[in-house]
């Protein structure tokens, strides 16, 4: 008699956890990877809009305009940023990305009338020349930080933390530190780099005030100063950023991406973007600064619906990183050279993955030329091709955003409001502090 084989998987020790334990036991090392959290988290997908019908009057899509213009930095800066759309490109460094990609992002942002951001490691000439509106990041590492380049920028973003790793510093492994990256960052070639987790010249929020004043004096009070925080203790962090003098606060939820960091950070530190945006808005409203200090939300923004929901919850704009890489061709089966598509499947296999599953940004062996410094691989991303794809993507997001706004009866996307939204799950309703669909109940606010 044949004995049956049990195949009941343990919830606490499923194949994923078993693989983790066995890998740790074999190598004594934690995993480092790129991109963002893979676990299912409460997200904007858990919200829906209440479109217009009888009690609300929709706009006619072809004849009635819906404005998307966005102004950032109106608090103190004499030259606020004026954008055509409320969708910006997040900071991603030269080093993490190739010079071709940075040029492509600048071209795309300029074409649709929005901004792009330098990321760690400084400003490249390709990026500045191709970007009409460029934001210069000041990070804890200070890699490549150049006061002359700061003056050339249109705004400055002081990065306190990122959503993928609040409380941790970035990584750039040695295989991506080629001679040019090494020179810009004053680092040895081919040696792993780990950025600091906090700024070297301050120990608390009072020192941030001093840093903001220094940067204002450096730029003659012209340029808006952004402060970016990874979503953790969001309510208090936003208040401190505003108190320190920020014109704009950027809140990055835990669905945000990274070029390389420990998986334990990506999956287990920080809070979801959905919860963070509500806490950030609460902080601004508590200080009576809503509208005077602008709020940018990032971390897992993928679609025009995500953009619309973030704005309805109180954001003035969003910032996108990972999805921009996908638009460039990240995780695509092919890359384009001279108008011809070539298969990259074998190159994915060579680094132990496949299209749609790749998170190997840290290796520098990106099969489609996005996150690489390899002289051959980086040519697989032609700037004009990448720019066209990102432009198309951003235009699509903006069309989806205005479609939703019109359906809710809004002539300006910034008129979207919390009253336009309901939640589909109890968790999302509690985090976003919105009523559960079909009820008036807001979990944690009202008794059931």
From TrEMBL:
Name the domain of life: Bacteria
**Quick one: signal sequence residues?**
none
Q: Which GO terms describe its molecular function?
A: glutamate synthase activity
The Glutamate synthase domain, residue ranges: 71-332, 356-410
Q: Which UniProt keywords apply?
A: Oxidoreductase
- What does the entry give for GO biological process? glutamate biosynthetic process
Q: Which family does it belong to?
A: Belongs to the glutamate synthase family.
Q: What is this protein called in UniProt?
A: FMN-binding glutamate synthase family protein
Q: Which organism is it from?
A: Scytonema millei VB511283
């Amino acid at each position: 008699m044949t004995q049956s084989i049990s195949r009941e998987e343990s919830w606490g020790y499923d194949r994923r956890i078993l693989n983790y334990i066995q890998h740790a036991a074999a190598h004594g090392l934690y995993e480092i990877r790129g991109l963002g959290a893979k676990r299912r988290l409460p997200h904007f997908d858990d919200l829906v809009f209440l479109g217009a019908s009888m009690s609300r009057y929709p706009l006619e899509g072809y004849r009635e305009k819906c404005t998307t213009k966005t102004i950032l930095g109106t608090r103190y800066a004499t030259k606020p940023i004026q954008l055509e759309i409320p969708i910006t490109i997040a900071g991603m460094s030269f080093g993490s990305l190739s010079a071709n990609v940075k040029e492509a992002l600048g071209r795309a942002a300029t074409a649709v009338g929005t901004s792009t951001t330098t990321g760690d490691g400084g400003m490249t000439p390709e990026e500045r020349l191709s970007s009409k509106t460029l934001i210069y990041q000041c990070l804890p590492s200070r890699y490549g930080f150049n006061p002359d380049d700061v003056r050339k920028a249109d705004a400055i973003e002081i990065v306190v933390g990122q959503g993928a790793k609040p409380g941790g510093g970035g990584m750039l492994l040695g295989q991506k530190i080629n001679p040019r990256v090494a020179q810009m960052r004053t680092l040895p070639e081919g040696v792993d780099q780990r950025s600091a987790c906090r700024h070297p010249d301050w120990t608390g929020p009072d020192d941030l005030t001093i840093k903001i004043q220094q940067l204002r004096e450096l730029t003659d009070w012209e340029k808006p100063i952004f402060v970016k925080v990874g979503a953790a203790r969001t309510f208090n962090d936003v208040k401190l950023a505003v108190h320190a003098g920020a014109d704009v606060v950027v809140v990055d939820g835990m669905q945000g991406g990274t070029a390389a960091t420990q998986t334990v950070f990506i999956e287990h530190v920080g809070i979801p973007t959905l919860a963070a945006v509500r806490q950030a808005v609460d902080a601004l409203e508590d200080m009576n600064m809503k509208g005077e200090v602008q709020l940018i939300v990032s971390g897992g923004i993928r679609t025009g619906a995500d953009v619309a929901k973030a704005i309805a919850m109180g954001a003035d704009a969003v910032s996108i990183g990972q999805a921009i890489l996908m638009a460039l061709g990240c995780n695509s089966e092919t890359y384009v050279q001279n108008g011809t598509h070539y298969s990259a499947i074998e190159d994915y296999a060579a680094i132990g993955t496949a299209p749609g599953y790749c998170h190997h940004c840290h290796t520098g062996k990106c099969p489609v030329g996005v996150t690489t410094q390899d002289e051959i691989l980086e040519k697989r991303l032609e700037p004009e091709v990448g720019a066209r794809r990102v432009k198309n993507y951003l235009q699509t997001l903006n069309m989806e955003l205005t479609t939703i706004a019109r359906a809710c009866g809004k002539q300006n996307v910034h008129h979207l409001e919390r009253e336009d939204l309901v939640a589909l799950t109890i968790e999302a309703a509690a985090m976003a502090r919105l009523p559960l669909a079909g009820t008036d109940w807001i979990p944690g606010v009202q008794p059931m």
